[in-house]
Amino acid sequence: MTANDPSSTSLQLTADGQLRHFLTLDGLNRALLTEILDTADSFIEVGERSIKKVPLLRGRTVVNLFFESSTRTRSTFELAAKRLSADVLNLDINTSATSKGESLSDTLLNLEAMASDMFVVRHSQSGAPHFIAESVTPGVAIINAGDGRHAHPTQAMLDMLTIRQHKGRFEGLKVAIVGDVLHSRVARSQIRALNELGAVEVRVIAPATLLPRDVESLGCTVEYDMARGMKDLDVVIMLRLQKERMEGALLPSEREFYRLYGLNREKLALANPECIVMHPGPINRGVEIESAVADGPQSVILNQVTNGIAIRMAVMSMAMGGQMAERSRRQEGRAQA
Amino acid sequence: MTANDPSSTSLQLTADGQLRHFLTLDGLNRALLTEILDTADSFIEVGERSIKKVPLLRGRTVVNLFFESSTRTRSTFELAAKRLSADVLNLDINTSATSKGESLSDTLLNLEAMASDMFVVRHSQSGAPHFIAESVTPGVAIINAGDGRHAHPTQAMLDMLTIRQHKGRFEGLKVAIVGDVLHSRVARSQIRALNELGAVEVRVIAPATLLPRDVESLGCTVEYDMARGMKDLDVVIMLRLQKERMEGALLPSEREFYRLYGLNREKLALANPECIVMHPGPINRGVEIESAVADGPQSVILNQVTNGIAIRMAVMSMAMGGQMAERSRRQEGRAQA
Amino acid sequence: MTANDPSSTSLQLTADGQLRHFLTLDGLNRALLTEILDTADSFIEVGERSIKKVPLLRGRTVVNLFFESSTRTRSTFELAAKRLSADVLNLDINTSATSKGESLSDTLLNLEAMASDMFVVRHSQSGAPHFIAESVTPGVAIINAGDGRHAHPTQAMLDMLTIRQHKGRFEGLKVAIVGDVLHSRVARSQIRALNELGAVEVRVIAPATLLPRDVESLGCTVEYDMARGMKDLDVVIMLRLQKERMEGALLPSEREFYRLYGLNREKLALANPECIVMHPGPINRGVEIESAVADGPQSVILNQVTNGIAIRMAVMSMAMGGQMAERSRRQEGRAQA
Questions:
Q1: Which residues of chain B neighbour A101 with C-beta distances below 8 Å?
Q2: Is B155 annotated in some ligand binding site?
Q3: Partner residue facing A59 (CB), from B51, B285, B305
Q4: What is the CATH number of domain C153-304?
């Protein structure tokens, strides 16, 4: 899928350009990305109240459809949905109906027939949420909670929200993404978003064995040497070393990786003094990042977690809003016909 | 248990004839079955709203007590309870307290003492929900979500609702149930309901090896040849081939079964042109039913799923209503004494 | 930890002496224990309503953080939280993020960053809830749902509530705790509470192999012979034989234990005629207690379960209240500075 694949654009946007699914950042323009960030900002305040509830999805049924288990991601979507007042159904599909030999497509048709309003989908195969969005009944919103190596767009957006909170803008920023870009779900989405929102440079820092072949075509510069890569940075985003996804011997050793690409105080000192440090979690302390950096004054790692709930509330409520607007149009269309 | 076992009648009905448990269709007369269908009809509309909530069970505690796991059935009961505004507790008893050596009876007493209002029970042994209903504290409603080979009464009622929606009546209808009647939880309940509601003929179509010995005593005719069996049908209900329950070699092969009893377009063409096609799901495509039929214009399989939520909302709210009426009478009785 | 460890006192109480965590009964004075019982009494009535809800924790996020699974305990906390109108997230940590190599401390920081208001913690290691309470962000309340052999303070408090309901007072009561005190989470908490509330004698009855070395220093008398121990009792609390925790051959046999320390009708007849019988459940019938006693007129075992929900509602709402009061003070402090 290219950076502006028109099919995914028309799939996830209504004719008016409103979000109706949230599958990928591809094809979302600066205005829409900014609308997501602004909506999330309004939900940050909800998380600080003692009554952390808004009625936007009251009486709606949100199904967490996890074909690949991830307690952390599922918990954030579950909390986001509950704070929007939705009813939540958690389905771990590995252990469920498919064991009776039912196809994915039949499972989905059944869940739709139960009057579900939204599926939050996590799948180990790239494109699964797109496939579901293409086949789903009109009115049901699909949210991508991570698919294969392809995308993890709510993670990328919570990173953008965190950058905007701390830097106040994207224009002129120099941002680096460090580490296992090859196996990362989120790096592509981050590069796309940073470019669209106006960062002046997105730099990827990694050994050649952990970079995809087409990496420069994603809209970034490449740096193999971390010391050089840290220069002038405003934001450094560390990636998690996806040990469980490494298929062969792409790395000499964890220790060697840490020596070359792990973020410690010495390397961080090479960046701008206000450079913020981000990481999607869970952290491998001493593998990608030194504890003194992860817990240090430049780290905004826990802000990312807090922002994750707000971003999920934002895309869920916006997609539901888009679905409702489209439904009204369909009903008007039928009334006039 | 015979078709009109007086003990189960008095167990599941109040002195006034209201539902207080929902265990079996045995002993429920046409008026009560029709009341369930009418109540469910009113909940169909709730499922179409954006706010799919009614406050009928607000503040009530519903415990899904699944001694045999079934994600699909549990999900429909969970959604039904949440749309009635109940609090839901899911307990998978295989992995729970009984592993500490506690008896079923002690587990139940404990759950009752937690002020539960309703148990939705699924068990691999026939009669388990009856047993629980006999021993439970007054005020707690038991809903049968499938017990052994005995009954699956909410499934049978959602089938009745689907037939009434599409045919407008039961009088004069010819209905066939096709396939593995021997291992089916639902066939007995379906036959009972169809007879009570006025169907002119209930036909069972299956090889002799997949029929119980007493099948005709259930109130149906028997046909071994599917071509003959399809004649003049208004409704054909396919059963799932319960492969996991087959204990021996009751079938020559799946392919042979499909050739003889699988529903394809050719066989369906032998029925009335408006004949509807039903299946409880999950579908074994190419084993009991051809995809072109399952997805075709005569199929109402997904309507069954939608109706499943409405039927479950209906029996849950009616049983709770019966329990409350009985409680009021008990309190009045004590006040007068 | 000694009976009045000042560090745990200051950890779980605000400067004004309000509860802000609920970790142990150590350091809680009679006034505060009585306040918990009185608050629970007011929730007993909530459990008897048809709408079993109060809005005290509406919009709050309660995380059940179970490092050691216990369906029974988790269910009571889940119901208590839902009846207080909280949103509940159940996390079984054995099967979750820690499998990705994340430290406990990082998991907690992440959950706090999701704007959780309360962690209900169960852990196989003594002191884990204290450790968490020491490191948690201000504003988040920790409730101990059982840690190692150390404490299970909500269980002890539901026992106190049950005694007060049936005896009307603690002053002058003679109470025995019988059985496996060595492996019991709750015996220490019970002894502490009974002494603080004014019981005249707390007696421990067990073989020497099932008693901790320092048992008398806990504030109890010791009796090895059950017949002598039953004399003049107002309350007898049987402990569960923690078979799964016995590491060596501390007992000759279950049968021998039952003969010597099992509570049967003969032994119970040696106590006061109004002596009540308690057990934390799940019961090992015929191991610690005869069925005729467990189900007999002096048994209040099921009242304990009902009271368990009310006690959990009480400590959750009181700790949340303490956190909010403290938060207000912090904000005032900042406003004045």
A1: 282, 284
A2: yes
A3: B51
A4: 3.40.50.1370
